[in-house]
Fold this protein.
Amino acid sequence: MSALCHKRPHHPPRHLSPQEHHRSWQIMSTQKSFRIIRDLFPPIVYHFLIRAYRRAQGAGWNVFSGCYPTLADVPAASGGMNNDWFVADAVSQSESLKFEISRYPMGHEAGMLILPLLVSQLLNRSEKIPTVLDFGGGVVNGLKSILGHVPNIDLTRLHYILVETPAMCRAVRGLLDKTFESVEVVEDIPSSLPSPSIVHANSSIQYIPDYHAAISRLLALAPEAFLIATTPVTDAPTFAQAQHNNPHRTIGRWVFNRDDLVSEIEKSGYRLAFIFDQGLPVTYKNSKPSNDVSMVFHKLASPR
C-alpha cells in the first residue's frame, strides 16, 4: 500500500471496477470502430453506416428531427421518459453507487475547462483582483480559455501571468496590444503572488527535467487553487518516454506515478478536491500504460 493510502485511509482506490472497465472498453471499441470506418469510407457511406447502426439498435435514422411549436405537437410516445422500458435500459447501463474515483476517461479538451470555472468563481466571490499564473501556458492558452468561457469578463479585474520559455515569451509579447495590459509575460516563476490566486499547469510539468523543484516553487506561491491539467500519469513507477508528435523533433517527457504525484502536492498543505482521467487517440511503443489526468488541489486552512 502506498504512503498516500496510509495517510488517507478513507481515500478510495483509484482503479476501474470490472463493470466500469467493461463499459469503458465497449465505448472505446465502438469509437475505434467508427474511426476506422470513417477513415476507410467516403463521407456519404460513413454517415449511412452510422445511421444503419443506430437503426439496428432500435433508434431512428436521425438523432433529431422536426421543428414543432410545443411538445404536445411532437409525434412521440406518450409518457416521455416515464416508462418501464426507459428505466430498465437506464438501470442496465448504470453502476451502483460507490465511494471510489472513476477512471472513465473524459475528452482531451476537458482539462482546459477547469481554469475558466475557477476564475469565474473567484471573480464572483472576491472583491480583490484574482491572479492566474499560467505555467507553460503556450500562446496564453489559459487566457484564451478564460475569455472563451467567462461571459462579460473585464480584463482590468484579472491579473494573468504567463510563465514560458524565452522563445515563447518573445513571440507572445509581440502579439499582445494595449487591450492586454493586465497580462504579464515572464520567463521564470515569480517569488510571490497576490491573493487570491490560481496556479495553472496544463500539459507542462511533464516537460520539466527537475519537476520536483518546479512543483515546490509553484506551491511556495501559496495559491488558493493549484490546477494540474492534461498531465500523463501511470500506476507504474514514474518513468520518462520520448514524444514524437512534433514534426522533425523528438522531445522527452515524464509520466508520473499517479499516487506519488498526488502525495507530493498534498504534503505541501493541499488537498485533492477534483480529478478526472482523459482519453487521447495516441499510440505507444515499448512503453507502459498511461493516460492523462486533470486535478484541482485546494490549499488547506492554516490551523489557528
Remarks:
- The beta strands are 131-135, 159-163, 183-186, 197-202, 225-234, 239-246, 249-257, 270-278, 291-299.
- The chain has nine helices and nine strands.
- The radius of gyration is 23 Å.
